[in-house]
Amino acid sequence: MSEAKTPTRTPGIEGPLAGVRVVELAGIGPGPFAAMLLADLGADVVRVDRPGGPGLGIDPAHDVTNRNKRSVLVDLKAADGPARVLDLAERADVLIEGYRPGVAERLGVGPGDCHARNPRLVYGRMTGWGQDGPLAPRAGHDIGYIALTGTLGMIGDPDEPPAAPANLLGDYAGGSLYLVVGILAALHHARENGTGQVVDAAIVDGTAHLSAMIHGMLAAGGWQDRRGANLLDGGCPFYGTYETADGRYMAVGALEPRFYAEFTRLLGLPDPAPARDDMARWPELRAAVAARFRTRTRDEWTAVFEDSDACTAPVLSLREAPHHPHLAARSTFTDHDGITQPAPAPRFSATPTAVRTGPALPGADTEAVVRDWGLAPGWAPAPLPNPEVHHPQ
Question: I want to staple 146 with a disulfide (CB 3.0 to 4.6 A). Which of 91, 170, 189, 271 is the partner?
Answer without folding.
Answer: 170
